[in-house]
Write a structure and sequence with these properties.
Largest interface: A-C, 86 and 90 residues
Distance between the termini of chain B: 62 Å
Order of helices and strands of chain C: HHHHHHHHHHH
Shape of chain C: globular
Largest sheet of chain C: none
Structural class of chain B: alpha/beta
Low-confidence stretches of chain B: 13-27
Number of domains of chain C: 1
Number of strands of chain B: 11
Number of helices of chain B: 16
Shape of chain B: globular
Strand content of chain B: 5-15%
CATH superfamily of chain C: MetI-like
Structural class of chain C: mainly alpha
Strand content of chain C: under 5%
Distance between the termini of chain C: 33 Å
Number of helices of chain C: 11
Largest sheet of chain B: 6 strands, mixed
CATH class of the largest domain in chain B: Alpha Beta
CATH architecture of chain C: Orthogonal Bundle
Low-confidence stretches of chain C: none
Chains: A mainly alpha (252), B alpha/beta (398), C mainly alpha (248)
CATH topology of chain C: MetI-like fold
Oligomer: heterotrimer
Helix content of chain C: over 70%
Number of domains of chain B: 2
Radius of gyration of chain B: 23 Å
Mean pLDDT of chain B: 88
Chain lengths: 252, 398, 248
């Protein structure tokens, strides 16, 4: 059986990314990175962005998974796809339309609740549909097996469901985290002047005035990319062996 | 083996799209030839004009008046592309660096920082004003400097506007007439006034107006001075602003939306006539009225230019010339479409043309020209813009 | 009972906000109409390439072992965490040198960046859920590659195929920055015409813009739903009794 070929896709992606990166990184210098790490504005922006990204990701994952479990067998679930059709700017616009004069969760608040809610609106369906194929194929007999063997609820959950869900959930978490950390459109519309989220701050540095701050914007992106890179390495390294075991294990 | 073949195929998909590399460079600049020959050769060509597309009135002006006129008079097909100038500059910089001799942009709407960067990086075609006959109508003062940078003929003045505040007369009975009164008004009406943050062109301009109001002339001449009084003023009004000054609208468009919704009573901007269109379309409240602060109103010009690698420079020049004609300027001045102030020196026009301009009805939301007497200010040094951007976040916003 | 109420509540929560989008008046915009051709063509091309590359790569990552595959997987995921800001300038420079700037193909390639990583992930998960054994069985049942795809693999991977098509369509339509820079206003897609409305001060214009940006994917979704269900129906009918004894 032909086992596919990952190289074409890999070459395309790597090629484009590396070409783009090369030019941009060559426009930065060590001094930029040093300046960045002592820049109070950057650090506060990093903190807020981390907060928004982590909260949004965790909530989206939990709610998305719960929904996937609850709605996996219904056809109504298809309606949940609707937010996926809405571009991020459109979702931000909706937030302004409805949340405008609402006190705590309204736009332009330092707690960034409106931003988180908008991300949830978009990302819960994403998690839902990402996990749906896996959830649909969960074999209920594992659960029964667990009951029969007298496993505790926690272990039962892990062996019947957790093991299969772990990898897709981690993947979804990574995707969401990486995206939200650096996104521009939603925080540009709903965020506050200070502290800005990273995506907005970097974009401002990139486009403002005499463009002298562009290297700083690049440096910021590079630092973030580096961090996420490490995270991804960890994830890929730890989860693929487990996933392979699961895939092989379906032998009956 | 199979992997190698597939990888090779994948790699070649990257290169398959290769047309011939940059064509032979355009022969020497057309600026040396006469306008008559340029006009003749531009017939039957396509001109691509890149400009901000966020205002339906402006888009309509180009699509419904300019394009048909160009088609009729010169058989030129005008294509409007709604890409923002900042993005265009980035594109041109890349094209210059990569040596792309023939680009895709013919005419670009440009001013301020974008012009400064374009000039610095040599992204423009050349001294286009020398070859355009309609330049004789253009106001020399407006033409000479762009937000403090000398234009050197690289761009042609398209419109000239004055900074004006607009307020809702239904809610504001006695509007403040200068900065000091504004300060008191803001304190008495907390949460009803704000200005865009300084990354926005209009917001940055507001701070410059405050400078004109509170700083001495010597301080204003020295970009490196410490503008203590300005920051003091802004900090004083800060707690009484919208959202207690904790956040500011990111763009003028957002401030306009707040004003339209009634969350604030004031908006501001670089076109004294811009409210007309908005009131007619119902976006702004009906009772919108203008106010020009006694401390001054900065005059700002916006321009048209041609990039260094325009594929159709002749067509571009004809287009710009047409846009500078009195007839086109009049149509632009009329608030049916845009309501943009003219860059022309009205004294150069004949009497009937002058009358046409004077006859354009001014809505109640437009200030009478007499209001501006003695208040017109020129732009400050461009390094002050940069200074404001760097200092305002730490001195005021946080 | 409780389950149904939860479902209804949730679904309503996500759908109701859209009521705000229904415009007061509807006008046909000829400029938007002009962009439809390029947009549709681009979507089809991007979706096709995504399926092609995604299928190959997803299968490999799901079933092959070894360091090479893991490296490939990592490389494919690169665009997920390298921000567009960092890439656009350099990519555009390279594209100019390759002669791809301001061309359909140039934009097509660049649109693979935000789409392919998701596609490959979806395919990988789909293949894993299906399982290697199942696929080997399918090879035994039907030797001809194309027939196998049409009757077996395709339908079995149905939810993956649909998810990929949907996701790629939505992402492609909402790309503005890349299309504006690399396409240079020559490759006119709907996002180019519609996004400027968000930077203006009219909420009405923003509302219409959102409607347009949602409309196209919804149409595509309906189209592909029809295509897929007819596919399944054809397969069922053709297979009725021809491969085994259980009748459908």
């Amino acid at each position: 059986m032909w086992r596919g070929n990952a190289y074409p896709a890999a070459i395309l992606m790597a090629g484009m990314v590396l070409y783009g990166l090369w030019v941009s990184i060559s426009m930065t210098s060590l001094a930029d990175y040093r300046e960045l790490l002592t820049d109070e504005v950057f650090l506060e922006s990093l903190a807020v962005s981390g907060y928004v990204a982590i909260v949004s990701t965790v909530l989206a994952l939990i709610i998305g998974m719960v929904l996937a479990r609850l709605l996996s067998s219904t056809r109504l679930a298809a309606l949940l796809a609707v937010p996926l059709f809405i571009p991020h700017l459109g979702a931000a616009y909706l937030a302004i339309l409805y949340l405008s004069d609402v006190p705590v969760i309204g736009p332009h608040e330092g707690n960034y609740f409106s931003v988180i809610l908008t991300y949830l609106y978009k990302e819960i369906p994403f998690v839902f549909f990402y996990l749906l194929p896996v959830v649909r194929r969960l074999d209920p007999r594992y659960q029964e097996l667990g009951i029969m063997l007298g496993l505790s609820p926690v272990r039962r959950f892990w062996h019947a469901r957790g093991v299969f869900l772990l990898v897709p959930m981690l993947e979804a978490a990574f995707i969401l985290l990486a995206f939200i950390l650096f996104a521009y459109e939603i925080p540009a519309l709903l965020g506050v002047t200070y502290p800005k989220l990273l995506g907005v701050y970097a974009f401002d540095l990139y486009t403002q005035g005499d463009l002298s701050e562009q290297p700083l914007a690049f440096a910021m992106s590079v630092v973030l990319t580096g961090g996420l890179f490490v995270l991804l390495l960890l994830m890929t390294g730890l989860t693929r062996p487990l996933a392979a075991k699961i895939s092989r294990g379906r032998s009956e | 083996m199979k992997t190698k073949v597939i990888s090779f195929l994948a790699l070649s998909t990257l290169l398959v799209g290769c047309g011939t590399p940059a064509t032979t460079p355009e022969p020497k600049s057309v600026l040396g030839t006469s306008y008559q020959s340029i006009e003749k050769e531009a017939e039957k060509s396509t001109v691509r004009m890149y400009m901000w597309g966020g205002d339906d009135g402006i888009n309509a002006y180009i699509d419904e008046y300019v394009a048909p006129r160009l088609k009729k008079e010169h058989n030129i097909t005008l294509e409007r592309v709604p890409i923002e100038t900042a993005d265009i500059i980035q594109k041109l910089r890349a094209e210059k660096q990569a040596g792309k001799e023939k680009g895709v942009i013919d005419v670009v709407w440009i001013n301020g920082d974008n012009f400064l960067n374009a000039k610095k990086d040599d992204l423009l075609y050349g001294e286009i004003t020398k070859v355009l006959p309609n330049m004789k109508y253009v106001d020399a003062a407006a033409q000479s400097s762009d937000s403090g940078t000398k234009t050197d003929g690289l761009e042609a003045a398209w419109g000239k506007v004055q900074y004006t505040l607009h307020y809702d007369a239904a809610d504001v009975k006695s509007p403040p007439t200068d900065l000091k009164a504004l300060k008191s008004w803001v304190k008495e009406n907390p949460g009803r006034f704000t200005y865009p943050e300084v990354t926005d062109f209009t917001g940055n301009a507001f701070v410059r107006h405050v400078m004109y109001g509170v700083e001495s002339n010597e301080t204003l001449k020295d970009p490196k001075a410490d503008f203590k009084k300005t920051w003091a003023y802004l900090n004083e009004i800060k707690p009484y602003l919208w959202k207690k000054g904790k956040t500011y609208p990111k763009t003028l468009a957002q401030l306009d939306q707040l004003y339209a919704k009634g969350d604030v009573d004031f908006t501001m901007g670089f076109n004294e006539r811009r409210a007309e269109q908005e009131v007619t379309s119902g976006t702004f409240p009906e009772q919108t009225r203008p106010i020009v602060l006694k401390d001054g109103s900065i005059a700002s010009t916006h321009f048209l230019s041609v990039p260094f690698n325009a594929p159709n420079p002749k067509g571009a020049l004809v287009t710009i010339n047409t846009l500078l004609s009195p007839e086109a300027q009049l149509k632009k001045y009329d608030a049916t479409y845009w309501g943009d102030g003219t860059s022309l020196d009205l004294s150069t026009l004949n009497t009937s043309e002058q009358k046409q301009f004077a006859d354009v009805p001014a809505a109640p939301s437009t200030p009478k020209p007499s209001v501006f007497e003695g208040k017109v200010r020129t732009e400050l040094d461009p390094s002050i813009f940069e200074m404001i951007r760097k200092e305002w976040p730490s001195r005021v916003a946080r | 009972m409780k389950k149904i109420s939860v479902i209804v509540f949730v679904v309503l929560l996500f759908i109701l906000p859209l009521i705000g989008l229904i415009p007061g008046e509807w006008s046909w915009n000829p400029r938007l109409e002009a962009t439809l051709g390029t947009t549709v063509a681009m979507i089809c091309a991007v979706v096709l390439l995504n399926h092609l590359f995604g299928y190959m790569a997803g299968k490999a990552i799901a079933f092959q072992t070894g360091k090479r595959v893991r490296v490939a997987e990592f490389l494919i995921s690169l665009p997920l965490f390298v921000p567009v800001l960092l890439l656009s300038f350099g990519l555009y420079l390279t594209w100019i040198r390759l002669g791809l700037a301001d061309r359909f193909f140039g934009v097509l390639l660049v649109l693979l960046l935000p789409t392919l990583p998701y596609t490959v992930r979806l395919y990988t998960n789909g293949f894993q859920a299906l399982g290697e054994r199942m696929l080997e069985q399918m090879v035994l049942i039907e030797e001809n590659r194309f027939k196998r795809w049409f009757y077996l693999t395709g339908p079995m991977l149905r939810s993956t195929l649909q998810s990929v098509t949907l996701l790629v369509t939505v992402i492609t339509i909402s790309q503005y920055a890349l299309v504006a820079l690399i396409g240079g206003g020559i490759v006119r897609m709907i996002a180019l015409e519609v996004f400027p409305a968000y930077s203006g001060n009219s909420q009405e214009a923003a509302r219409l813009a959102t409607l347009w940006l949602i409309g196209l994917p919804v149409l595509f979704y309906a189209l592909q739903a029809v295509i897929f269900s007819s596919w399944i129906r054809i397969v069922r009918r053709r297979l009725n009794g021809s491969h085994d004894t259980t009748s459908q």
